[in-house]
Write a structure and sequence with these properties.
The protein is mainly α and 188 residues long. It contains 9 helices and no strands.
């Protein structure tokens, strides 16, 4: 028995998991964590910032949802920006905010936004953010599962498109976890 082989401790055999299925499961894990961190937060908790140059939980969660929405729709789905969840689920209509044309690549993801552009982003409730995140992550998970099994190992293009966004999302997951702890300790 080797520690890095197919057998785990005590001879337990782990099931073989396809690369796309493993990535889809990680996407689900990330969505679950974010959902848990947002649960029970009010508007003040979502807006709380440790200093004037930092972002609050709400804007970071929106940033994650936007990147995942763009990745699932434009990059993997090869569809038009009008097909993003922000538009099809009515968020743009309800909030009056169209992020297209802003930030890096005009994707409206908050990356490379000016301070004024950040201020324009609508502040959603925890329930609204969770709804947007769940829809965008669901689309991303489905798009990953639609890739041929083993495709990430053989065609590195999808991986190169997914990796930086998902790495950023996992990093921001940690930001949100930390900010949640600080906000709750500071405000209550």
């Amino acid at each position: 028995m080797t520690p890095f082989g197919p057998d785990g401790p005590g001879g337990v055999t782990f099931p073989t998991v396809d690369d796309t299925e493993l990535l889809a499961q990680w996407v689900d894990d990330l969505a679950r964590d974010l959902r848990g961190f947002l649960a029970g937060l009010d508007a003040a908790d979502l807006a709380w910032r440790p200093d004037d140059e930092a972002h609050g939980i709400g804007i970071i969660a929106w940033h994650i949802a936007r990147w995942v929405d763009v990745l699932a729709t434009l990059t993997l789905g090869r569809r038009d920006a009008a097909d993003e969840r922000w538009f099809t689920d009515g968020w743009a209509a309800r909030t009056g905010y169209d992020p297209r044309g802003k930030g890096i690549g005009g994707g409206g993801t908050l990356t490379d936004y000016t301070t004024d552009q950040v201020a324009e982003v609508p502040r959603l409730s925890a329930a609204e953010l969770t709804g947007y995140l769940d829809a965008a992550f669901g689309d991303l998970r489905d798009a990953i599962r639609a890739l041929p099994p083993g495709s990430l190992a053989h065609d590195h293009r999808p991986y190169r498109q997914l990796a930086p966004v998902l790495q950023g999302c996992w990093g921001h997951r940690g930001d949100i976890e930390t900010l949640r702890s600080l906000a709750l300790r500071t405000r209550r």
